[in-house]
TrEMBL record:
Swiss-Prot/TrEMBL keywords: Coiled coil, Membrane, Transmembrane, Transmembrane helix
Keyword Transmembrane among record annotations: yes
UniProt cross-references to InterPro entries, sorted A to Z: DUF3084
Source organism per UniProt: marine sediment metagenome
Protein name as it appears in the record: DUF3084 domain-containing protein
Keyword Transmembrane helix: yes
Coiled-coil regions, chain positions: 88-167
Membrane-spanning residues: 6-24, 44-65
Amino acid sequence: MYSLILVFTVIIISGLIAFVGDWVGLKIGKKRVTIFGLRPHSTAIFITIISGILIAIITVTILAISSNDVRTALFGMEELKEKLSYLSREVELRNMQLSSTKEDLKKKTTQLQEMEEKYQKLSEDIKSKTSQLEELLIIREGLIEEKDKLDKEVEELNAAIKALYSGIAWVREGEVIFGSEEQIALTIIQGQRPIEEIKEELFGFLNEASNKVLAMGAKKDERTNQVFI
């Protein structure tokens, strides 16, 4: 709306100036008035030229006052060109920086993918090694239990061997009461029963045999407190 009013105002003012210039030119022509020593006809032409110049000056002045863009186009074109050139260089520089940044981003993305692949592989290796370690720990626990069991059996065997050696020495030093063919005691132990009952019956039989041997004059070993039969 503002632009239409401005254009309309310029048209009216230009028309008025043209009308006044033409009217003055006619008057000067009729009265044969001269300016700067010119002939009347040349004077009328001069007045018309001046009117056109005034129209142009007034039009430009109104537009320059009313519009910042017009003032820039008329009086700041060189500065505008310099700014445009500067901005063009800045845009080119920014585009180069953007291209370099994109290239760096692409490289970093590739490196990140490689690192993620390495991380995934290491995670799988750690998981596998952890599983193997757990299996080895289980095997180790089993071996420790087996070793303890074997150590216990070795201790029992050592104790039995020690007792046997002690018994052998006692037999060699002591008196033989029964011969190899003599029967000390006899019993029948029925199977198909709980092991505890069988053990209890067996120990009872051995105690009975030991008591019988003691009654016959046998003596206990002072080191083991046992009777060797």
